[in-house]
Amino acid sequence: MSDSVSIHPVPESWARTARVDAEGYEKLYGMSLADPGSFWLEQARRLDWIKRPEIAGDWSFDEADFRINWFADGKLNVAANCIDRHLAKRGDSVAIIWEPDAPEEEPKRFTYRQLHAEVCRFANVLKAQGVRKGDRVTIYMPMIPEAAFALLACARIGAIHSVVFGGFSPEALAGRITDCDSTVVITADEGRRGGKKVPLKTNVDAAAAHVRCLEKVIVVKATGGDVPMQEGRDLWYHEAAAEVPAECPIEPMGAEDPLFILYTSGSTGKPKGVLHSSGGYLLWASLTHELVFDYRPGQIYWCAADIGWVTGHSYIVYGPLANGGTTLMYEGVPNWPDASRIWQVVDRHKVEILYTAPTALRALMREGGQYVTSTSRASLRLLGSVGEPINPEAWRWYYDVVGEGRCPIVDTWWQTETGGQMITPLPGATALKPGSATKPFPGVDPQIVDAEGKVLHGATEGNLVIARSWPGQMRTVWGDHERFFQTYFTTYRGKYFTGDGCRRDEDGYYWITGRVDDVINVSGHRMGTAEVESALVLHPKVAEAAVVGMPHDIKGQGIYAYVTLNANCQADDALRAELIKWVRTEIGPIATPDALQFAPGLPKTRSGKIMRRILRKIAEGDVSSLGDTSTLADPSVVEDLVSNRVQLS
Ligand code: ATP
Ligand code: MG
């Protein structure tokens, strides 16, 4: 399909006004690799340091002297960078706009000055409960402003936060509290998502039964729902906050002191407790946010992720606030009360920059264009995508229907481990190809290697590694430094292995083909899942597709496809045959699915990523050991898939 891709040149207006144009990108990128020491010390000036660093990167990916340090002699406070330093110039500008779940409710707005008071109060409540620098605090919250205050309050006093997505079960929560030995959990009485209540406090109570380390539970009153409070352990946030001042000094932190732990989404296995630093991470979040979104203070920016994912950390809270921006936080889901909500929120707040995930786009696309076209969206200037490869079909829908051909799309490839965006267009610099994350961000040195680790040059396909450290890189797996080294630095010696497969085309553009573990090998031809899935999604009746390999007597591996249809489309044998033929025509006979199962839903992580490892087990008929399913959004989907498994055709 690569040959037929359309190219969208940089719009003239963007080339003229954006911070970085095509020439600027080449220059910046070249400098970042030629002289990383000076380049990064210069970039570090964008932060407000208590002690300015004099050394940039000090790292080695080799086993003998394995280490990752950035700006190690610098001192700063992350919350001060996100709040205090903006007060003089922008104290009365809006830092956070909060859009409630129910559309008839009023949004809330917090200026930087108000944010300062809220965060200081929260920090003082934590201190009053004995929380000190280096302590771990688990945050299990709905998408309410207090969630952002809680993150920043931890940062202010140097506590390490560990956010657990509010959709996780008590068991998953208990595992994550125990893994990092949190003594304090911050939660709310209940959360709200799409008109439904989420019993957060009750879940914490259930989790607490399996946890030894937990001492205090701080409960924010969000819905006013009736929840039991345990004497001596639980306290209401609003009562504790009434007793403390709205001023709290900042804790000076070493650049390498940890800022947070965050567990990966678990699409490939047991989640890992990814640890991020204070200085390097904040620099990465802030620099990428500014350049990738060409962000300028005053612009209304909305990252429609949950704070429970790294996207929420870097691009709802830390990046935009470090840049003095206005960040929109949305409590609900994109398709409630109906599929036009996300666009109504855009109109209500005049959002200029929208950042969301392919899974959300495919779900909305499935409902039809009328939900989009009934809204204005005139304020939109730039669109972003993150989390999975975006199928060219979804890309075009985002571009043509949502953006009306006027807004560039930044398709950003990165991982919890990378702290921020790594391979991504810059809107004023990069011509776009639908489905490609395009080019590396300054400082990022990607390589494509074969199975033996040999570096492949030019247009090629293989495994994606990053050959040198960058400031936003994770520093360890919490409590298991050996697992960190083993997981990421032993597959290809001296390099960070991403786990993703990737193709590079003639123009040096990168195309993520899916997880390396998911690569299918049909009669000796290696195929990424993304390509076959994109071909299926191209069919007008297909909403979403997931493709996995299965054992095949003759070919070695056969292709098993799971397909979800658009609203009002009938699943039958005729359509099955048509779709199989469709893929054959789109990609070639080698990609012809051997089995195709219609699925009302696909197993996804709570963050919306398809869990192919489970689909692989089902395709193989091995349903007794599905592996870690604790991060599955809807376990009932699996039962349906198992009972409707189809045989090889
Ligand atoms: P786990 O590591 O526990 O299996 P996970 O990899 O799903 O979980 P994340 O860190 O949230 O956890 O996801 C990172 C992965 O998401 C990347 O490695 C890549 O496979 C995929 N990804 C993210 N953004 C993009 C993108 N723009 N294009 C293609 N793939 C993407
Ligand atoms: Mg991963």
TrEMBL record:
Residues annotated with N6-acetyllysine modification: 609
Cite the GO molecular-function annotations of the record: acetate-CoA ligase activity; AMP binding; ATP binding; metal ion binding
Substrates-to-products reaction catalysed: acetate + ATP + CoA = acetyl-CoA + AMP + diphosphate
Please give an example of a GO cellular component term from this record.
cytosol
Its transmembrane ranges are: none
Give the Pfam families listed for this entry: ACAS_N (PF16177), AMP-binding (PF00501), AMP-binding_C (PF13193)
> Which intervals hold domain Acetyl-coenzyme A synthetase N-terminal?
25-82
Q: Name one GO biological process term.
A: acetyl-CoA biosynthetic process from acetate
Q: Which residues form a coiled coil?
A: none
**Enzyme Commission code(s) on record:** 6.2.1.1
Sorted keywords for this record are: Acetylation, ATP-binding, Ligase, Magnesium, Metal-binding, Nucleotide-binding
Q: Where does Mg(2+) bind?
A: 537, 539, 542
Gene3D superfamilies hit by this protein: 3.30.300.30, N-terminal domain of ligase-like
Q: Which residues form the AMP-binding enzyme C-terminal domain?
A: 531-609
Which EC main class describes this enzyme? ligase
Q: Which PROSITE patterns match?
A: AMP_BINDING (PS00455)
Ranges for the AMP-dependent synthetase/ligase domain? 84-469
Residues at which ATP binds = 387-389, 411-416, 500, 515, 526
Cofactor(s) listed in the protein's UniProt record: Mg(2+)
Q: Which residues bind CoA?
A: 193-196, 311, 335, 523, 584
Q: PTMs? A: Acetylated. Deacetylation by the SIR2-homolog deacetylase activates the enzyme.
UniProt-listed PANTHER family: ACETYL-COENZYME A SYNTHETASE, ACETYL-COENZYME A SYNTHETASE 1
Job of this protein:
Catalyzes the conversion of acetate into acetyl-CoA (AcCoA), an essential intermediate at the junction of anabolic and catabolic pathways. AcsA undergoes a two-step reaction. In the first half reaction, AcsA combines acetate with ATP to form acetyl-adenylate (AcAMP) intermediate. In the second half reaction, it can then transfer the acetyl group from AcAMP to the sulfhydryl group of CoA, forming the product AcCoA.
Provide the family line. Answer: Belongs to the ATP-dependent AMP-binding enzyme family.
Q: This chain belongs to which protein, by name?
A: Acetyl-coenzyme A synthetase
User: Native species of this protein?
Assistant: Sphingomonas kyeonggiensis
User: What's the source species' lineage?
Assistant: Bacteria, Pseudomonadati, Pseudomonadota, Alphaproteobacteria, Sphingomonadales
